[in-house]
Structures are given as structure tokens and as C-alpha cells.
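Late entry, written up from scratch paper. The run itself happened at the end of the previous shift, but nothing got recorded in the book at the time, so transcribing now.
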Amino acid sequence: MIVKFKETTVFYTDTGKGNSVVLLHGFLENNTMWNTVVEKISKRNRVICIDLLGHGKTGSIGYIHSMEEMAEAVKTVLQELKIRRAIFIGHSMGGYVALAFAEKYLKNVKGLCLLNSTSQADSEERKKLRLRANEMAKENYETLVKMSIGNLFAEQTREQFSEVIDKIRIEALKTPVRGYIAASEGMRLRENKEEVLQTIDKRLMIAGKQDSILSYESVVKESNRTNTPLVELPNGHMSHIEAKEELLEALTNFVKS
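Output as recorded:
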């Protein structure tokens, strides 16, 4: 299904009945990353998956997609569906969007789970890496995407999930260069949202101990500082693949609690 947002349309899926759960994918991902989660969670809940700006079947609206603008697109979908309150689960970039949504529309947030995500802003080193990647995207996009996807997995799981990684690369390459750069810029410019996280009563962080994108130690400290419960998994950045069963259990418990 689609809904008009500014000069483009936003694609979403709507599955099941019950309490509303909104799933927000990460960078270079789209709603299909949630297929297994939807199958599980939608048995007792209404699950909304949204393709964020410049990803999946949702178009771009400029050359910078701020997390706030993506949050506005999410709000437009929820208004279309007449959903007043929902639990949000955001993977990586999706977590940044969920926090931006909570900052703007806190009354619409029943709970928030940061999955392989953080309320922290990019470090200066990460900002420089994003700028370099954006330049590379203009010249050698396919190589950049293939390399990026492999790095999301823990080193010891890459061989085990080699076929899945190939499929994810194919899906990631459907993201246009414009969508890549606009989202990357939005993430680079985002601000610290630690205070926003603490305004949400029902919250959870899920982290992979071998995550090469987000420092596990940093997430543990953030969890302690914000008094946010933390579920620790043994994998890298792709918990929904590398630790699927453990993740499904954690998300089911979070939604149910």
C-alpha cells in the first residue's frame, strides 16, 4: 500500500490485528528484512512495515533525508491508518528514525526498541567515513554496497550466511544512489537523542557483542546511563539473521510486556 508524502509516495504493509507495532528498517534495507518478524509478531498484533525515504518502494524527496523528515513520513502512514499509539522497533537507521519520531510525537509512542541501534550521534570519525562513502557511491556504487553488506555480519558468521548475504546485497542494490547519499547525510547530521530515549517509559536495547558498526561496549554504557534494559546477543549488526530465534523471543516478550 502507498500514501502520498510531499512530492513522492511512501510504501508500507499492514498485517494482522491487535496492538500496533511499527517496524523500521535500517540503511540499505527495506520492509522485506522484517518478513520473519512479521510472521511471528502479527499473530497477535497489527504490524506495520514502512519503506523509509529513498529505500524499497518509497521515493526520495531531496538530497538529504533527515531522520526528522523520515519520521514525518512515518507519521503520515500512521495517520492514514488512523493509528494513535504504537510500539516502534527500529533496526540501525530505523532506530534513529524512531527516536526522531518520539521527539516530535511522543504521545504516539507506546514503546521503543533500538535493535542494533543507538541514541548517540555519529562520532567525528564516523562522519568522515560517511562523507568518503558518499563520494565512492558516485563512482563505484556496486562495489561499495557489496563491501558494506559483508561488514554488517560478525566475521565468524559470514561463511555460514554467505547465501543470505548475497541475497541481501541484491536487495540493497535496489536502493538508488540518491537514496543512499540522502540517508547517509541524514545520519551524519543527526543529533544525540539520549534524552529522548529516556522520555519513553517502555524501552529496550538489543545489541550484538560482535557488532562492527556499533561498539558493544558503548551500547552497554548507554544502556546503563539511560537505565534502558539491554538484551545481549552473540552476533554482529544483523541480529534478525544471525540470531533469529533469540531475537524473535526478545521482540515477542517486549511487545507482550
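The chain has a mean pLDDT of 97.
(Scratch paper discarded after transcription.)
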